[in-house]
Amino acid sequence: MKLSRTNVLNHRTKSPLNLTQLGFGGAPLGNLYRRIADETAQATLDAAWDAGIRYFDTAPQYGLGRSEMRFAEALSRFDVSALTLSTKVGRVLHDCAPEDVTPEAFVDVPQKRIVFDYTYDGVMRSYEDSVARLGTDRIDILFLHDIDAGTHGAEGSEDKLRELFNQGGYRALAELRDADQIAAIGAGVNTWQICERLLGEADFDGFLLAGRYTLLEQDPLDSFLPLCTKRDVGIILGGPYNSGILATGAVEGARYDYAPAPEDVLQRVRRLSEVCTAHETPLIAAALQFPLAHEAVKTVIPGASTPDEVRQNIEIFETPIPSALWADLKSQGLIHPEAPLPEDA
Questions:
Q1: Residue 68 forms part of a structural domain
Q2: Catalytic residue among 2, 14, 38, 57, which?
């Protein structure tokens, strides 16, 4: 079973972190777009554990703490020594009046507002708050969350980078790693360019990159992924479906990067779908399996909000894909000529 294979994140870690090739993304358990009953959330986490998934990711942003609190209940049942857990820093949650709750894509959330803070005190408070919500200090990886221009704008991102490096945020991460309170540090972002820049500024172990290296786009192959390979920096690949379109295909209302897909993207996805159909392979299966062919990519983490979705993810992940499909995609110029293919991994 392919799911049982693990890759290792070991750039700076004293004890290498094992990551199952299929991980679990915790955003849906924060009631992303719709409310999920607590019982369903716990059953979903149990389904992932029972299937052999041992890498779990969450964040304070996901449901303004609700995802982390739901993880806490599951962690009380799981053998935490057998899993790898990541969460994120950079968003600090503050109590607030009902009318001041931070507007997000999450529903039925605690009465909190988000304050972005990448300073020393902000990182430390964010970490300590996550420990309290998760009910465990066995957090393996801390990611700087959304420090890129997509969240803050170009000028705002520069301000946040100054907070990180001039006001002690990176120093806080390094202290936590050096003290063995966490094993690895990185950033969880939506653009590869900020990851490449961070690698030029300091010593990071890995990055959670949402989208950007998918069946639809492979720009990071030109500079960023080779740098990761050279420096033994691991990539955890979130958003393998580019926020939906590689799961649904180019249907009406298909979404790309959390917005309606533009026509050029729809056309490219149609061509990808045609090749997959010719080889009797679901587009979604090719999309989920493709990124792992690159040696820098250690795991992919699709989200799930029900046990059935967990089982569907595993079935998709283990769908056999003929070698000829990958060859056709490359010969038709639909994937980067230098992209490693799953058959070679």
A1: yes
A2: 57
